[in-house]
Amino acid sequence: MAGHGRGKGTVLTAWERFVRGEDEVPGVRPVVAISWHRCRERYRVDPLLTEAPIAVAEVDRTPEHDVVFTELGFCAASVAHEVGHLNGVVTVTDATGRILGEWGDPATLARASDANLAPWFCWSESAAGTNGMGTALEAHGPVLIRGAEHWCQAFHSWVCAGIAVRDVVTREPIAVLNISCWRSQLPGPAVSWLANAVTKTQCLLTRRARDSGAELVASFTQARVHSGAALAAVDTAGKVVIADDTASVLLGVPASTPAVDPTLRWNPGLPELIAAARYASSQAARNPDWVGSTQIFTHLADEPTSISIRPVFSSGHLIGNLIWFSASDGAQVPHAEQPASTGVKPRRLVAVRDNRMVLLQLPEVSFAESEGNDVWLSTDEGRLRAASPSLDKLDGELADAGFLRVHRRYVVNLGRIREVERGAKGELSLVMDDRAEEVVPVSRRNAPAVRRALGI
C-alpha cells in the first residue's frame, strides 16, 4: 500500500497543481517531474485518460530485437508465479511501448485489461503518460513510478517498475521489461531483478556486436587489398567501426588499422552519412547485390565528397556498409528530405539542478553543448544539465524555435548572438550575449547555414 499511500499526500497535491498549469512540483522526484513536463508540454496527454490506446506504430525488427524479445519473455515467464501472488503482472514491450506479452495473476490481468494494460496496446509516454514502461523508454536505468506519480489519474492505483534494453551501439531502446502491481508494494528485489535481467540481455547484444564488428573489420581488410581508395566500414547506424588514415580524417574519427576492438564505434556526426547508410540498408533488404553512391559533406572539406556504399552481410543478415571515398559507383542515393515540422514548439526547456527540475523560458538559454553523455545548457541562471538525453534530440525539438545547430557539439539561440568573429582562414565563431560572453565555434559545413540565418 505504500506506493498508493504516497499518492494521497505530497505527490498527489503536486500532480493536481501541475495538471492545472502550475510549474512548481515540491516533493516530486526529478525523473517524474521531467516526465510530467513532457506529458503536458510535448505530448499533450489528457491526464483524465482512462485506458491506453491500441498500438499502431510498427518497428523494423532485426535479429537483435528477436534475441531481446525471446530472452525477456523467458525472464518474465520465470517470475510470473511469484509476482502473481502479489497482485502483479510482468510485461514486455517493444521500442514503441507496445506490449508484446504479459504474465501474472489471472485476477490482476483481468483488472489490468480494464486500462488496456494488455498485449497490442501502447504504453509509451506519448500515448499513456508517465508510467513504468513509457518512462523507461525515455530514461536510462530502472524507473519506479508509484501511485500519483502516474500522469493519468486512472492509473494512480498502480505501482510499476520498468527498465529498457538498449542497443549497445546506438543506445536506442529495443524493449522494456516491467512489473506492475495493483494497490500493493512491488516485491523487494523487483528493481534489482529487472536490472540483472537487462544486464544479461545486454551481454548477449554485446557479444553479437563484437561478432558483427569483427566481420566488418574482415570485409574492410579484404576490400583494401583490391582498392586504393580511402575506405571505412560503418555499422547499420552509420557509426564507424574501422577507417584507414585518409577516411579517418574525413570522418573525424580515430584511425585504427587493425581495429583495436570491434565493439568500439565512433560517431562521425555526419547526418548525410547516417541517411545514406539507412537508405543502403533498405535497398540491400530487397537486393543483396545493391551498390550505391552519393555525395556528403565531410570534416575539413568545404565541398561535398563522393562516396560509394556496399552493404556487408553475415549469415544472411545485414551488419553494416563499406564506404569508399572519392568514388561514385552504383545507383544514386537520393538526398534525405528534412522531416516535416509537427507544428508544436516547446514553450520551455527542462534542466536539472541537484534534485530539482528547472523550467527555462527559451530566451533564457544561450546555447546547448554536448559533453560526453550529457547535454549542458548555458543559461541566465548559469550552466545547467539538460533533461534531454542527446543534442540531436534537443536540436530536433528546437529547430523551429529560433535555435540552430552550428557545430556537432553546439546548438545556439540565434537571438542571443552578440558578435560574429572571422578567423584568419575565414572560420566563424559566435560571441554570445551572456555574462561571460562565451565563444561558440562554427564548423565549416554549418557556416553557410549560419550566414543565411544571420543575413551576413
Automatic annotation (TrEMBL):
Residues 349-456 form the HTH LytTR-type domain. It comes from the Bacteria. GO terms for molecular function: DNA binding. Keywords: DNA-binding. InterPro entries: GAF-like_dom_sf (IPR029016), LytR-like (IPR046947), LytTR_DNA-bd_dom (IPR007492). It holds the Pfam family LytTR. This is LytTR family transcriptional regulator DNA-binding domain-containing protein. It comes from Pseudonocardia humida. The lineage of its organism: Bacteria, Bacillati, Actinomycetota, Actinomycetes, Pseudonocardiales.
